[in-house]
Amino acid sequence: MIREELNQTRIAVTGSTGFLGTALVERLLRSAPGCELVLLVRPGRRGAQHRVDRDILRNDAFDRLRTELEEAGGETFDEMCARRVFAVAGDVGTDGLGLDEEGLALLATCDLAIHSAATVSFDSALDDAVEVNLLGPTRVARALQAAAEIRTEATRTGRPPGEPAHLVAVSTCYVAGSRRGRAPEELVDESPFFVDVDWRAEVDNARRARIHNEQESRSPERLQELSKEARRQLGAAGTPALAEKLEQLRQRWVGERMTNAGRARAGSLGFPDAYAFTKALGERALGETRGDVPVSIVRPSIIESALAEPVPGWIRGFRMAEPVIAAYARGLLVEFPGVPEGTVDVIPVDLVVATILAVAARGPEFDDHGNHTPDVVQIASGGANPLKYGQLVDLVQAWFTERPVYDEYNQPISVPDWRFPGRGRVSKQLTRARRALDVGERLLDTLPLRGTQADIGARLEERKEQLERASGYVELYGAYAECEAIYQLDRLYRLWGSLDADDRRDFLMDPVAVDWPTYINEIQLPSTVKQARLKMAPGRKVSVNRADRIRKNVLSPDRQLAVFDLENTLIASNVVASYAWLATRRLDTPDRIRLAAQTIREVPTLLSLDRADRSDFLRYFYKRFDKASVDRLDHDAMEMMSDLLITKSFPDGIRRVREHRRLGHRTLLITGALELVVEPLRPLFDDIVAAEMTSVDGVYTGRLRGVPPTGEVRYQVMVDYAAEHDIDLREAVAYADSSSDLPMLEAVGFPVAVNAETKLASIARKRGWLIEHWSKSAGAPNRVVPIGPRTHRGPVRNRRGSRA
Amino acid sequence: MLDVDKSTPPILFHHGEQFRLEKLPADRSRVIYPAEPLPGLPDPDESIRQALLNPIDDDPLPALLTPGMKLTIAFDDISLPLPSMRKPDIRQRIIEQVLDMAAAAGVDDVHLIAALALHRRMTEAELRHALGDRVYDAFAPHDALYNHDAEDPDGMVELGLTRHDEQVTMNKRAAESDLLIYVNLNIVSMDGGWKSTATGLSGYSGIRHHHNVKTMRESKSFMDRHSSELHHSNWRQGEVIKAHGPRIFQIETTINNNTFGYDGPLHVLQKREWEWTARDRATFVGMQKGLDAMPSSARRKIFQGWKAPYELTSVQAGDVEKVHETTLEHCFAQHLVPVEGQTDVLTFGLPYICPYNVNSVMNPILVMCLGLGYFFNMYRGKPLVREGGVLIMSHPTPWEFHPVHHPSYIDFFEQVLSDTTDPIEIEQKYEKQWAEDEWYIHLYRNSYAYHGVHPFYMWYWGAHALQYLGRVIIVGGDPRSVRRLGFTPASTMQDALEIASDVVGPAPTITHLHNPPILMADVT
Questions:
Q1: How far is CA A155 from its chain centroid?
Q2: Are B378 and B348 in contact (CB under 8 A)?
Q3: A–B CB contacts, 8 A cutoff, strictly below
Q4: I need a surface site. Which of A314, A535, A597, B331 has the fewest CB within 10 A?
């Protein structure tokens, strides 16, 4: 019956790129081979058709149909789609659905519309939720009305011009709000618990909140605060990088404010979150504005992976329960709030699809006088076949105890005993843990850590993020896990009762048919493991493997250029040390001590200058070389190569430079150090770009010839160099230690963080860059104070005359 | 020589900058001690003067010096003696007298060259220590005192080929001098003779003819000049130098075994364990505990600071070959200890120093070279240990390298030894690349680095022993570096003997070579 009813129809579907929408499209194409589909999708950059092809039809949901068609011979899947599926560019977040004339004309040929587009994310911004969830159904109804009015000839099933198509709107059970007890299948405003508010005022206020927060985010005080945060995260990364970060932070700040606004408003009216709240008002608005459009509302509870159709366990995207279960399996979520007797109301997606199709096939409901009022059908499990929270937890725990997830050290993670605490206690615990980590992170930030130590910082940060994610789940889903409402299914069963035996076999929608232990153990959890890519077997050490793999790429003969920073990347030294060495080389002992003491005294000033802006610091510092003899410094620099540069070098780093050269890559050193200091390293590299000091009459002036190559200048130098030598930066490798080198690292195809300080370490980990820990040679002489060994050698002449 | 019985006290093993006391199994172990230091010459300066005035088979030095002549004085580098000796160094004593004679003869074109072959350059401080401030300040500022540079494209000349087609190259200034005076410090019998000039003033193209696996495997031992292919090759190169090179006036010197002093903090190391007094014992235990508590860098500083009170035992000058024969007599008089029969297991404790880590770090490659190269070859006749026997050495063998002195060693250890420890394979696969590497050459010439090829020579030095021994065990070494060397790590001597029994059976004979002070076994 369902198949026959739908076979001749042309059906408009919104939200077909989503989980439920994709399942609907698949089912319709497979089970009603006569129907045609008009898919309303946001066109993106490459048009609606492209999106339909790429984001919908390529999903693995269609594998079954693809194979069936292939086995049957005849029409292929692609040919069938070309014949039956039409893409229309549109957006339920825009008035008039953003349809052009052609789109509206196509909509006019439809007999039925299924509106499944929604912002389902529980933490979406208030105004986003309002535009899509609240106004979406109204806009669809209005578009159907308008389409009917421009219809010139009857549809395939004979719907005459002027008669709008039937609208099946997908809502959610949670429009009933946070309450205990029975929640019947009735319109929201029929419920005695519904606080009736003016939905139009809510729309206005949501839009105004966005404007207000956007303004607020641009206030000087806020920008200053955000700029401080950007600097804290990136360090002295140069103006462009900091500006980009600041803008990112500003947008995130506005987003967070809007999410909070949504949650607060929803809570004030008795809804668990903005999603349920806007969905409820959406139903209300639809009822008011539907005009002549006949409407049916289908309310699923939490939709989960498929029980049987198209294949058991099929799911699209990372749904609500998956991240929670994954977090638990990883040992991250020690406690999750909820009452063991509480009901977790989940429903497999194929049951929801079947319900929607049954409602669509049945058509709109009319009373005895031929009047239409929208009807509601709920599809949930809590009333007929409840899955108890305690039972779910036991099943999950048993499953992961038998098949533990392995951590990065290949140790199985034992899943904790869930103790069913109240939500308040869990939040408090998480907040406390997060605060402790915050303090730890601040502390680490202020310490000049590098390399492996900085890795601790990065790990701490990761841990913090995981905690944040976990506490996010608690806040978001806590209300659902604690929900004690029972959704009534009277109308669903009435519908089920009206189906014939064939339909009952092919379109299962009776929640009693779900055997929870089987569903959880054999469908849900294997699917979660696959989706979350949990590590279910102790592989070889993954992290090492990964580094080796990236390193192999870095050292592939295909690379063209390897760019190196000097200080702390190849050598554990800095400009202050080399200055002190050169300056003390020809001083008497008391003077040497005085100079060293003076330099040490200046360290705090120098450090703060350095933190603020590296090139200012270099300009300020290099003034000290004023009036130094060119010959003498050049000669002493050669001695310093041994005593300071090579002594403090990282042999692994030097070897890496040479490996790149041997592979035929160009090697380039870009450093803010003085050219005269790095001159002795010239044989190591193809080219060196360093800070150049001007000289007059054989003495240095202490002034630099150009801007010293640090931060974004370093990036520019590299880009210019690549252009000059016809090198593709995607084939370039860059090695650096500090977040101030981010512009350079981001510009190349193969960035490598060497002995990264805390900030860069965390960035590198997040982006999956190669991280190298290079250290000084064990056995290198330990110099606490960089003082040049005194020489009494008279006038300097370079006997060899060459500086090979 | 001491046969170990139940009443024998534990025997001292050098262990880098530390020491171990080990009880050797009774009734099948013996300890070979170095000879007591020979008396030093009472007036070294006078003996030197006499040697210069009465050379062997040559005219007195003043007769060879003429105004306007080009004179070059080459001298042994920092690798000799070990440890460095107290001031004044013998080189200073000799060179000061030579310079006085040259000045008296009106010679003003004089250059002094540290004949370091492919070793690292000597620092200003090291040159000052070896030659004295007076010589340094008179010559260095005028660029007349400097380190040999085998990679200077304008500084080397080809002298020709030997009858075995071996190239002979030499420092250009030395080769073009009217007279080349070579000042030797012959601490062991390997040093001196034609090796001084044919190797010390040469470069890679000359040295590779005898510093290779084949030659080293045929030098049994390289401490015994007449059974050493290393020396035969050098002597052939000497023939070419004699024919086409400068006139050479060779000065050789020998020193006694007074390495640690008759008194002072280290004197106990020069005494036999059973002669230790209660005070010696207390001193030793205190020293051992103190050293164990120190960080390795502090220990290294203390030991590298030790200057040996060596005394001059002979000085001879004149014709290269004749002078060297006399030198060998003096050398053997101090070092040779007669030993009867070979042993199953040879043990020794490796000290903190070898020729290539003065003021530096004894890295694992040098541990191999000192043990399997120098100590193993301290024999005349046949090796102390039987073929297929086991060598047990004691050394911490830390995974440590001096980044300035041994940059090519670091890469050799990481890249070559991780691939293979077979000397032949190493020679064929890697030597050329390392030897011709621009960066190593740059560091050898301008920094203080051993030449890129030098770690290969260290490995070849042990090639004879590697081929000959059944197993090599290092006691108390860092297991990672010991395994990288291809040896077996053991944490105690007991464990080592246990492991050795797999190769030589349950009750092997054991011989301990109590070195330093230096000794050479005359095995019959």
A1: 44
A2: no
A3: 78
A4: A597
Establish if B363 touches chain A: CB-CB under 8 angstroms.
yes
3-state helix, strand, coil in chain B (%, to 5): 40, 20, 40
The pLDDT value given to residue A794: 47
Report the gap between the CA of B467 and the closest CA in chain A (Å): 31
What is the three-class DSSP state of A668?
Answer: strand
The C-alpha atoms of residue A782 and residue A789 are separated, in whole angstroms, by: 14
Measured in degrees and rounded to the nearest 5, phi and psi for residue B31 equal: -120, 130
The secondary structure of B445-478 as a DSSP string is HHSS---TTHHHHHHHHTHHHHHH-SEEEEET--
| DSSP letter assigned to residue A641 | I
Residues of chain B under the 50 pLDDT cut: none
Domain B59-255 has CATH 3.30.230.70: no
Residue A229 — pLDDT band, cuts 50, 70, 90?
confident
How far apart (Å, rounded) are the C-alpha atoms in residues B193 and B202?
A: 14
Residue A368 has a pLDDT of 81
DSSP character for A133? I
Give the span between the Cα atoms of A173 and A177, in whole angstroms. 9
Secondary structure (DSSP) of B360-375: S---HHHHHIIIIIII
Contact A683 B363 (CB under 8 A): no
pLDDT at residue A424, as a whole number: 63
DSSP secondary-structure letter at A220?
H
The mean predicted confidence, pLDDT, of chain A is 83
CA proximity to A507, closest of A645, A727, A354: A354
Nearest to A193 by CA among A175, A207, A209: A175
Determine the residue among A586, A634, A648, A800 to mutate to test chain B binding: the one whose Cβ has the most chain B Cβ atoms within 10 Å. A800
E-assigned strand segments in A440-500: 485-487
* Structure letter (DSSP) for residue A567: B
Report in angstroms the alpha-carbon separations of A345 from A596, A613, B144.
72, 56, 94
**Nearest chain B alpha carbon to A643:** B404
Residues in chain B within 8 Å Cβ distance of A794: 141
Q: Which two tokens stand for residue B315?
A: 């000085």
Q: Which CATH number fits domain B2-32+340-523: 3.40.50.720, 3.20.20.70, 3.20.20.450, 3.90.226.30?
A: 3.90.226.30
How many C-beta atoms surround the C-beta of residue B68 within 10 A? 9
Closest Cβ–Cβ partner in A791, A799, A800 for B124: A791
Domain ranges of chain B: 2-32+340-523, 59-255
Nearest alpha carbon to residue A349 among A489, A136, A508: A508
Closest CA to A293 of A203, A134, A129, A169: A169
Q: pLDDT at position B78, please? A: 93
pLDDT (tens digit per residue) in A288-329:
898 889 999 999 988 888 888 888 888 887 666 677 777 777
For B33, the token pair is 């001690």
Q: Which amino acid is at B63?
A: A
pLDDT digits (tens, 9 = 90+) for B323-369: 999 999 999 999 999 999 999 999 999 999 999 999 999 999 999 99
Q: Which residues of A touch B446 (CB under 8 A)?
A: 638, 641, 680, 803-804
Q: Are B384 and B465 in contact (CB under 8 A)?
A: no
The structure tokens listed for A214 are 């956007």
* pLDDT band for position A366 (cuts 50, 70, 90): confident
The complex's ipTM works out to 0.91
| DSSP label of B285 | H
Domains present along chain A, CATH in parentheses: 550-772 (3.40.50.1000)
Question: Averaged over A65-78, what is the pLDDT?
Answer: 88
Residue A799 pLDDT greater than 60, yes or no? no
**C-alpha to C-alpha distance for B414 and B423, rounded to whole angstroms:** 16
* Higher-pLDDT residue of A373, A454: A373
Please say whether the beta carbons of B350 and B367 come within 8 A.
yes
